[in-house]
Amino acid sequence: MTVEALQELLDDMSLAEKIGQMNQVIGSFYTGESVATGPMADKGFTEENIGLAGSVIGVSGADAEKRIQKGYMEKHPHQIPLLFMLDVINGYRTVFPIPLGQGAAFEPELSMRCARMAAQEAAVSGVHVTFSPMADLVRDARWGRVMESTGEDPYLNSLYAAAMVRGYQGEDLRKAGSVAACVKHFAGYGAPDAGRDYNTVELSEHTLRQFYLPAYEAGIQTGAALVMTAFNTIDGIPATGNRRLMRQILREEMGFDGVLISDWAAIEEMLCHGYCADRTQAAQRAVTAGVDVDMMSGVYAEQLTALVQDGKVPEALIDEAVMRILTLKNALGLFEAPFKDADEEKEKQIILCEEHRALAREAARKSFVLLKNEGVLPLSDKKKTAYIGPYVDSRNLMGAWSITGETKDVATLRESVLEQCADIDAVFCCGCPMTDSGRKLEGFLECTDEMVSAEEQQRMMDEAVEAAKACGQVVLLLGEDRRQSGEAASSAGIQIPGIQQELLDRVCAVCDQVAVVLFSGRPLDIRQIAEKAQAVLLAWMPGTEGARALVDVLSGRYSPSGKLPMSFPYCVGQVPVHYNEYPTGRPHVPGKDKDRFRSKYLDIPNSPLYLFGFGLTYTSFSVSPVVLDRDHMTKDEILTASVTVRNTGSVEGTETVQLYIRDVAASVVRPVKELKGFCKVTLQPDEQQNVRFFITEKELCFLTENGRWESEPGAFEVFIGTSSLADAPARFEYR
Ligand code: GLC
């Protein structure tokens, strides 16, 4: 439709129809599985407003989408099509590594390809909008939703948010295989006090803008069609009703003119926040803040009509919101093609096709981070191998947000080993249950864990120890259950379950060739694992092809190359912890200061166990000292920083060479270093390559005391290395 036609449509709509567009409901209202009575009626849902709702959440499947769309449009006064929205976070049916694992690949373009394939599968299944990318910066491993982020660095997160938006949306939303992207959760949701989900967020304006906003903005500048509000408060006001955050920062400063959708029931939750006295005030404050769509609280549907009729909400505000919603539907081509890509035949062809599975396997391989290796990996094909642990036969490798992924599509580790190494001399045993008995696990897709008796647990453990004794090498597959991370999965403790710790202790007591493969949705306290095992390979939640990818790497066919996108703390007492911290007035340098009065703990080190950007390979690399092509630069010049990287080991490997910059003194304090570039190089043994980074004013800009994003003259240090541990910087003057 043309803009004029959209305007004519809007002008012809009744107030009820307009407000209907701002209401999002669950699909089961249209399939009869949910009815607008009882609790749903209390939420303000009625047959009438459901019949006018503008969008649906949670429906997937071409057949279901077509049936709902057809039935709905036949009854709608203006035959305005529904928008179908769904959480496609790390894949649709072909599930890729969780976003934190994708961040470990340090390859945003790979994630763009993953998002593209996820969009293709979702689109043929009738999905129009995905609630992704999550661009929340994270520093606290206690928060279960770190799994959905790409980590602690604003620069890396910005690259990923932009890449995922490009992947989902393609060049044109009308085109087949494109879905609209929704950047979330605006803003600062990743910084809840104490790491407790939905808790208060207290960020200074400076910290919010310097660290937390850039990734959202990157997704928005890339053209994300939607933004989702966060559950938390900013400056004491819930984001969903925060006019300054949404009108001034999001829409005016960032120039976002797409659809702003609330998070689930977030409008109604402003009553619980104590920000709204009743649902009437909640509706008024949300629509005034510029929230266009009410996700499943029913408040808009119930309250807006009277507010407009009583003159408390200008109808112009409604028109503004509805025009954005109609514009999005038009951009997707839904007025001409309300079913868009939904196609049962194409579902069969595209979903889980070999190309998608191959990419999922590549993405999983590149997500793995080798944290320790004392010669155990790759596994020797001359030794008998024991694969032990609760993940040996698990298909739950897709993470907490893989709601459309199916475990039947996932090969287990045991199956993958036998599939790839049929004649392998190996034994497999579970060793222990996933979690300690009686531990309560929740999750979107409830699954009850059968309880294992103490006798059975003892038998399992004894069997595993015997297997370890009889083999020359052990792969110990441990970690969190997938339900231990994700939404509403905050945890004060971040260690593996006690029963798994016991298995680790007993296996390592009888075998000194133990490689731990760790499955997790968050950084964990793995001091014990790192101390006892000879190798530690972090697998995150690796997705549909994760187990096959693990065998690719454990066998040595592929070398691991991942780097930590989020620091692994020494222990939970350290969090929130991140590499790009401020130096403080009393920096503590281990072993270099005798002064007691330094910024340090009495009982643990300051440094995380494994820092941002760290990860080993099966080979080794040297990086020469940084060479600058000049010792000063002005704002219009480009300074070149280079190193020579050499593969000093005996096998091919891929290293991620990282550029960090420090602004030594500025009008506000600056981090000890900040990631400003990286480059992955694959080298054969003894091969070397010159790696150059170009530093412009852009890399030196920050939020100054003037509240502007600008550079300031002064001294800068340039670090180039294989992790944020890079030292021996080169120095230059910026004039
Ligand atoms: C959830 C999450 C959000 C998700 C939405 C729809 O509560 O906070 O990330 O997209 O509801 O499922």
Please describe the biggest sheet, giving its number of strands, its sense, and whether it closes into a barrel: 8 strands, parallel
Overall spatial form: globular
Q: Provide the gyration radius in Å.
A: 26 Å
Question: Could you say which structural class the secondary elements and strand pairing correspond to?
Answer: alpha/beta
What is the CA–CA distance across the termini?
A: 53 Å
**Which percent range describes the beta-strand content?**
15-25%
Bound molecules: alpha-D-glucopyranose
Overall residue-averaged pLDDT value: 96
| Low-confidence runs of at least 5 consecutive residues | none
**Strand tally:** 27
Any key phrases for this structure?
735 residues, eight-stranded parallel sheet, 17% strand, 22 helices, alpha/beta, six-stranded mixed sheet, single chain, binds alpha-D-glucopyranose
Describe the secondary structure blueprint for this structure.
Elements: H1 3-12, H2 15-21, E1 23-26, H3 28-31, H4 38-42, H5 47-50, E2 55-57, H6 62-75, E3 83-86, H7 99-104, H8 108-124, E4 129-130, H9 154-169, E5 180-186, H10 205-221, E6 226-229, E7 233-234, E8 237-238, H11 243-253, E9 259-261, H12 269-273, H13 279-289, E10 294-295, H14 299-309, H15 315-331, H16 344-350, H17 354-367, E11 369-373, E12 385-388, H18 413-420, E13 426-429, H19 454-470, E14 473-479, H20 498-510, E15 514-519, H21 527-532, E16 535-540, H22 546-554, E17 621-623, E18 627-628, E19 632-633, E20 639-647, E21 653-663, E22 674-683, E23 688-695, E24 702-703, E25 709-710, E26 714-721, E27 730-734
Parallel strand pairs: 1-2, 1-10, 2-3, 3-4, 4-5, 5-6, 6-9, 12-13, 12-14, 14-15, 15-16, 19-27
Antiparallel strand pairs: 7-8, 11-16, 17-20, 18-20, 20-23, 21-22, 21-26, 24-25, 26-27
Helix pairs in contact: 1-15, 2-14, 2-15, 8-9, 8-17, 9-10, 11-13, 13-14, 17-22, 18-22, 19-20
Alpha-D-glucopyranose binds next to loops.
